């Protein structure tokens, strides 16, 4: 697959998603370019997490298309909306890293085994090499000293950093962060944001759903504000967070900025 | 009560009891792993989303759970020859025990799987793993850890259930006891001895199960 810097890594078109009769995404269009950091803001229930989960096909969707690295997500490209098989979904997910609010580490495996599982079991990387790369990633997130600990022995912030390393181990084209600091004690939020900031500086393509206004302002290339299942406003944080064009975003900012 | 006659009785028939104990242990050692494997296999269709097979397995599990083990042993031992299949008593006993206990175990393992958060599946999916790999590497190990106490319990029930193979002529502890009564006329002493031997087997298994439980709890809690 050839792609240039201007090609979108993630492309979402007219995405509609309903849970039973409740429509939570009402036509989302979003392109994310290589190396871009997009921060998605919005009140609870605005659909931002659901959109993120659709990109990884953890949620099915009723209409619209999503591509990652040119590969269709969930459904066959073209007019026939046939669901892709499990193998092809798994293949797409190899290229999409996802970090969850609740870390979701594998509690029965040590930290390094968590990080190695994807490369060894999915990519069939030799264990020794996977361990070496895994240790390097753990060092990067400041967790190499806990390589042989079990997740249950770690703090929330530490678990979340391991979860980031586990995703990075698959060498994804894009990383999705789903409110990854929301479950953390306030004093642990900083260590996780620091790791994410580092990734952004290295040029990782990231879509970040968060309530951290400071992170949005300082790290985002683009801020997307969602409300009621649509993208209400988007732009460079310096522009739209300083001077929101819509009243909805303005109200949201004034409610959240002082946090 | 004077224990001296009981002790002399026990020493006199010790080798006979040991033979019976060995047969009982042999049946249990074959049936327990077979039951465990059956339990895992029986739970797979339901958690893998193979709907047709899952329904068939569901029916099978209900059938196995809801009919007496002794009847199942009789069915295999006396029924199969009518179909031209002649299996030995131990084979029939082991298969019947493995199937019934497999059915119970599959329910235990299923409960363990269902107690896990769907987020564990999602975490596996998000690193590109396929459903079966997630089941094998992420879900099943955690489910088994969760239900360790119930598995230990079921193992003890299984060891005691091996006594039913005496009904089709397997010379296990129980049948040894019956034969010894005829030989010695000491029915009370014989069954005290038989019960003691079962107790030794089940208690040591119980202690082993507790040790595993503590180890697992300490490591993964």
How does this structure look, described?
The complex is a heterodimer of chains A (259) and B (221). By secondary structure, chain A is of the alpha/beta class. Chain A is built from 9 helices and 10 strands. Chain A is globular. Chain B is built from 9 helices and no strands. Chain B is flat. The termini of chain B are far apart. Chain A: Keywords: ATP-binding, Nucleotide-binding.
Chain-averaged pLDDT of chain B: 93
- Which strands sit side by side, in order, in the main sheet of chain A? 6-7-8-3-9-10
* CATH level-two architecture of chain B: Orthogonal Bundle
Weakly predicted, low-confidence segments of chain A: none
Any idea what the shape of chain B is? flat
CATH fold title of chain B: MetI-like fold
Number of DSSP-assigned strands of chain B: 0
**Average of per-residue pLDDT values of chain A:** 92
Order of helices and strands of chain B: HHHHHHHHH
Strand content of chain B: under 5%
Number of domains of chain B: 1
Order of helices and strands of chain A: EEEHEEHEHHHEHEHEEHH
Shape of chain A: globular
Oligomeric state of the chains? heterodimer
Q: Main β-sheet of chain A: number of strands, strand sense, barrel status?
A: 6 strands, mixed
Helix content of chain A: 25-40%
SS element count, helices of chain B: 9
Helix content of chain B: over 70%
Strand content of chain A: 15-25%
Q: What class, by secondary structure content of chain B?
A: mainly alpha
Distance separating the two termini of chain B: 49 Å
């Amino acid at each position: 697959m050839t792609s240039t810097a201007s090609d979108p890594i993630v492309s979402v078109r007219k995405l509609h998603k309903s849970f039973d009769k409740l429509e939570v995404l009402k036509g989302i269009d979003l392109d994310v370019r290589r190396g871009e950091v997009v921060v998605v803001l919005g009140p609870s229930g605005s659909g931002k997490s659901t959109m993120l989960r659709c990109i990884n096909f953890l949620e099915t969707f009723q209409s619209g298309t999503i591509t990652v690295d040119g590969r269709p997500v969930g459904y066959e490209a073209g007019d026939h909306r046939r669901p892709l098989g499990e193998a092809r979904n798994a293949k797409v997910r190899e290229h999409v890293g996802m970090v969850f609010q609740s870390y979701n580490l594998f509690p029965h495996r040590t930290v390094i085994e968590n990080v190695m599982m994807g490369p060894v079991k999915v990519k069939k990387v030799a264990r020794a090499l996977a361990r070496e790369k895994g240790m390097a990633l753990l060092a990067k997130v400041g967790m190499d000293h806990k390589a042989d600990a079990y997740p249950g022995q770690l703090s929330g912030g530490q678990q979340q950093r391991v979860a980031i390393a586990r995703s990075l181990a698959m060498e994804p084209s894009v990383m999705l962060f789903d409110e990854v600091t929301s479950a953390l004690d306030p004093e642990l939020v900083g260590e996780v944001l620091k790791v994410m900031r580092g990734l952004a500086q290295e040029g990782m393509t990231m879509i970040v759903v968060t309530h951290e206004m400071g992170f949005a302002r300082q790290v985002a290339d683009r801020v997307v504000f969602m409300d009621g299942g649509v993208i209400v406003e988007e732009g460079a944080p310096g522009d739209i967070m300083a001077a929101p064009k819509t009243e909805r975003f303005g109200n949201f900012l004034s409610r959240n900025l002082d946090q | 009560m004077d224990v001296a006659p009981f002790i002399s009785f026990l020493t006199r028939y010790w080798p006979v009891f040991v033979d019976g104990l060995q047969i009982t242990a042999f049946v249990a050692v074959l049936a327990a792993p077979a039951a465990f494997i059956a339990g895992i296999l029986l739970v797979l269709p339901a958690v893998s989303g193979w709907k047709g097979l899952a329904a068939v397995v569901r029916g099978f599990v209900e059938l196995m759970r809801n009919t007496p083990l002794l009847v199942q042993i009789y069915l295999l031992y006396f029924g199969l020859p009518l179909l031209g299949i002649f299996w030995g008593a131990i084979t029939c006993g082991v298969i019947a025990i493995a199937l019934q206990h497999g059915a119970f175990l599959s329910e235990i393992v299923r409960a363990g799987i269902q107690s896990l958060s769907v987020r564990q599946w999602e975490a596996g999916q998000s690193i590109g793993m396929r459903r079966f790999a997630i089941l094998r590497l992420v879900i099943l190990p955690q489910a088994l850890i969760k239900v360790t106490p119930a598995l230990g319990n079921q193992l003890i029930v299984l060891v005691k259930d091996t006594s039913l193979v005496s009904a089709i002529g397997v010379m296990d502890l129980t049948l040894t006891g019956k034969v010894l009564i005829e030989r010695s006329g000491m029915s009370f002493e014989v069954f005290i001895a038989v019960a003691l031997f079962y107790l030794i087997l089940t208690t040591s298994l119980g202690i082993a199960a507790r040790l595993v439980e503590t180890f697992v709890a300490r490591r993964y809690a």
